[in-house]
Amino acid sequence: xxxIDFQLSGIQxxxxxxxxxxxxxxxxxxxxxxxxxxxxxxQAICRELxxxxxxxxxxxxxxxxxxxxxxxxxYHFDFYRINKLQEAYSIGSEEYFYSDNYCxxxxxxxxxxxxxxDCIRIDLKVLDTGERRISQRVGSKT
Length: 142
Fold this sequence. Notes:
Elements: E1 4-6, H1 11-21, E2 27-31, H2 38-49, E3 63-67, E4 73-78, H3 85-90, H4 93-97, E5 102-106, E6 120-126, E7 132-136
Parallel strand pairs: 2-5, 2-6, 4-5
Antiparallel strand pairs: 1-7, 3-4, 6-7
Helix pairs in contact: 1-2
């Protein structure tokens, strides 16, 4: 159940709990400030899903693809560096979002109007204790 508070040493369990909270959901948008742990959490989620390749932030490429078994893939987006919504359109973001593959999006506030209504919006915050908190963003838009 959300929210989930965790130390970074417990991030794998937090990733498992997050996936268990949303069975069958494949589109996740992660909101949080610089250094909140969005990429680190996505790395842990990818490990839970069975991704064997190296997972890193696609800051410059905008999107990374990680293969899964049976020909499926995980798509990892980082929209921090885009300046115009057109940049997200030009890489075919919407096709990925509706592909029925896992899509994990960092800095989704830059492309909010492209996100489908059923996208799971997750807030990630660093607490005063140093723990992280994962919670679901209320409402479909920011």
